[in-house]
Write a structure and sequence with these properties.
Ubiquitin-like (UB roll); two-stranded antiparallel sheet; 5-stranded mixed β-sheet; 5% strand; 35 helices
Length: 748
């Protein structure tokens, strides 16, 4: 070190001398000391001792400064390196002073002089035997760890317990120990009170519980602060912010380190730049993995088709046809494969491929015609889709004009004859010489058409027969569509309780409008369930990738009625832009609600911590008995309401009296015997007797209607004590408090 420091001046003599102001800490004392380049280590050592230990008789003067350590990064800077390179001391960063360990023989220095004198004069041996023994006993008592500050004692207790019992629930993790060290450096008041309580009763479990509660509250506050700061960074895009939140939740070390640096210097620009680099690094790291994995469209579709052919689900000709459709990028098959990659539902994939076989015309036994790839989407395969009525032929139809049939039976016989004639002509005659009749697909149910569901399957006196007849009447009247009828007949086979209940109600009261509304709602729900996966991959996933879909997946999983209503509206008007805008607004509302819920949780936790601390303080002061304190809960809304009233009145006796009444078991017993309407009528009568101003009267009545916790606590006290004057006085103070709280809120 000496060689290094001596070579520095010669090398940097022509340049200017650099200077750094290092923020140093020892125990609870923090000071700033100027360190210049090529400063003598002994000079810096003297400055540190003079700044932190003004009393030169302190034992720290016998211990030299070894170096400095950063409490967060654990970076150690030796004394010689720090004086040679002062720029190592970063601004706005605190460094702990590291002193050398005390030597074993330096403490009993006075006895050493006595022993030397006794050696020169060995005559009085009894004094020699007493001399060295008595000073160590006097010097050994003040040296123990009792002289350390309470922060070091508390940290040592918790660190030793966590190291000796790592599997215990009360043990602290390394991250929690680092956070605890930071709080102790700040002199956290709650931790100080917990340590004082531990010194009185020496209950280690209570100490661990108090420390864990403080760390939980601090962690929640840190998460809330992190969310607020990250959302305000303009350099980050929405998808970058979402990725940063995900990394923070996963405990990413880079993000946590960036946040710790921000807590020290509060440089938003540096934080945004660091997080942007982390996001780019993560994106580049995940790009090769995505590049190496095969795309969903090439993910073993051939193996699935081959397995279906081996199990005789499809024929060899159908296998060849599906393979051509797959290579031609058929949208239905691509969508089915993408859905399979997400949910791994092989049964749904096979059913979709069988539907593709049916709709592509691959089910005929004769040699199939050349395959024409239809541009059908996956949602068009479902009968309830709005595109199904326009592009997918239903199970009924009529011939074009000029060849109309007179009866349903003739329709059936003619359709069979037409099918056989087409098959014969395709097998014998050239397709160019055998023109086919034009088939017009009916998109609505004609009045003279064959009924979609024959009631002959059920007994005339059965409920199913009656339901079929009612449904056919609704379709004939135009109140239900053909697709809805097909869906309802499927539900009829499954004996859907909603369908049977709706028709049963119509059978009793004859309200056709209510029946139609119930059936349409049931069809809408069925439509939502049928297109559930399609909605996710078609709408929600692209919005999430664009950074506009936060929270939509939760709404989709919970079948949010707002999203369902927006989707039903989209099915009617086919306005994609309006539907996307609605989903984006739902995402904003969901994100805001989630943020408010997290803030409410943090606020509730803080209030409960304050309530628990207040109860403990009253118990320590002797204002509350131990039995009463044990019956009180910090989560009880009545306790929180009493503390809220106390924050305005600062009336300790009234607070103690209220808490004792809350803890009394007879309050809850007597409250069950009072009729709620009678009690509300009595309370309103008392409110009108107060003769309050109009604004206070309105606020108090609103609080009574909304079951305000403060009013409920006052009511319970009134039920127990029957003290009308005290109850009226409480209501007056509550009314004034509500009005003042309303006036304190600025107008938007």
């Amino acid at each position: 070190m000496a060689a290094v420091s001596s070579s520095i001046p010669a090398a940097r003599a022509p340049t200017s001398v650099s200077l750094a102001v290092a923020e140093m800490r020892h125990g609870n004392v923090t000071k700033k000391i100027a360190v210049y380049e090529n400063m003598a280590p002994a000079e810096l050592d003297l400055l540190v001792h003079a700044s932190f230990f003004p009393n030169k008789t302190a034992p720290e003067w016998d211990r030299k400064v070894v170096g400095f350590v950063h409490p967060k990064t654990k970076t150690f800077i030796p004394l010689g390196i720090g004086t040679a390179f002062p720029t190592l001391f970063q601004p706005n960063h605190t460094y702990e002073i590291v002193l050398e360990k005390p030597a074993a023989g330096t403490t009993p220095s006075p006895p050493a002089t006595q022993t030397q004198s006794t050696k020169s004069k060995p005559a009085p041996e009894p004094k020699v035997s007493r001399g060295p023994k008595s000073p160590p006993t006097r010097n050994a008592t003040p040296v123990p760890t009792d002289t350390r500050p309470w922060t070091d004692k508390l940290f040592a207790i918790l660190a030793d317990f966590s190291a000796s019992s790592p599997g215990s629930p009360a043990a602290l993790t390394p991250d929690q120990l680092n956070r605890l060290e930071l709080l102790l450096g700040q002199g956290h008041s709650a931790l100080h009170q917990a340590y004082l309580a531990y010194e009185e009763n020496h209950e280690l479990d209570s100490l661990h519980g108090a420390v864990h509660r403080v760390l939980a509250v601090v962690l929640q506050q840190q998460k809330s602060s992190f969310t607020r700061v990250i959302n305000s960074l303009t350099l980050l895009k929405p998808h970058d912010i979402a990725l940063v939140h995900e990394l923070y939740t996963q405990g990413n070390e880079l993000v946590l380190a960036a946040w710790e640096v921000y807590e020290l210097d509060e440089d938003r620009f540096e934080l945004a730049d660091t997080l942007l680099r982390i996001v780019r690094f993560k994106s580049q790291a995940s790009a090769p993995a995505n590049h190496q994995s095969p795309p969903p469209s090439a993910l073993a579709m051939e193996d699935v088709l081959r397995e279906m052919c081996q199990r005789q689900l499809i024929s060899a000709a159908q296998l060849a046809g599906l393979d051509k459709l797959w290579r031609a990028k058929n949208e239905a098959m691509v969508g089915a494969m993408e859905a399979y990659v997400v949910d791994h539902d092989l049964k749904e994939l096979v059913e979709t491929l069988l539907l593709v076989v049916k709709h592509a015309g691959l089910t005929t036994t004769h040699k199939p015609a050349p395959i024409v790839v239809p541009a059908t989407a996956l949602e068009e395969l479902h009968p309830l889709s709005p595109k199904a009525t326009a592009q997918s032929p239903p199970s009924y139809g009529t011939f074009a004009e000029g060849s109309a049939l007179s009866s349903p039976r003739a329709v059936a016989s003619s359709s069979v004859a037409a099918t056989s004639s087409v098959a014969a002509s395709s097998a014998v005659v050239s397709p160019a010489k055998s023109p086919k009749k034009t088939l017009r697909v009916a998109t609505s149910l004609p009045v003279t058409a064959m009924p979609l569901f024959s009631p002959s399957h059920y007994a005339p006196d059965s409920d199913e027969f009656y339901i079929v007849r009612v449904l056919e009447e609704l379709v004939t009247a135009g109140q239900l569509s053909a697709g809805q009828l097909m869906a309802l007949k499927t539900l009829l086979k499954k004996r859907d309780t909603v369908l049977f209940t709706a028709v049963g109600g119509y059978r009793k009261d004859g309200d056709r409008d209510a029946l139609v509304a119930a059936l349409v709602d049931r069809c809408d729900v069925l439509n939502w369930e049928a297109n559930h996966q399609s909605i996710l991959h078609t709408w929600i996933v692209p919005l999430e990738q664009a950074g506009r879909g936060n929270g939509l997946r939760d709404l989709w999983l919970n079948n949010d009625p707002r999203m369902m209503a927006a989707y039903q509206l989209f099915l009617h008007d086919q306005n994609r832009a309006d539907f996307e805008d609605t989903l984006a607004r739902l995402s904003a509302v969901a994100s805001e609600a989630a943020t408010e819920a997290a803030a409410d949780v943090i606020t509730d936790a803080a209030d409960e911590a304050v309530a628990a601390e207040a109860i403990e303080e009253l118990e320590r002061a002797g204002r509350l008995g131990q039995e009463v304190a044990e019956q009180l809960s910090a989560e009880d809304p009545r306790v929180l309401a009493a503390l809220d009233v106390f924050s305005d009145s600062q009336d300790v006796p009234e607070l103690v009296d209220t808490l004792e009444r809350i803890a009394s078991p007879r309050v809850a017993v007597e409250a069950d015997d009072v009729s709620a309407p009678a009690m509300e009528k009595q309370i309103l009568h008392l409110v009108y007797e107060l003769e309050l101003p109009s604004d206070e009267l309105l606020a108090l009545k609103g609080a009574i209607v909304d079951n305000d916790v403060v009013v409920q606590a006052a009511i319970q006290v009134f039920e127990a004590e029957k003290d009308e004057e005290d109850f009226k006085d409480t209501l007056r103070r509550v009314a004034r408090h509500l009005v003042s709280a309303t006036e304190a809120v600025p107008a938007p």
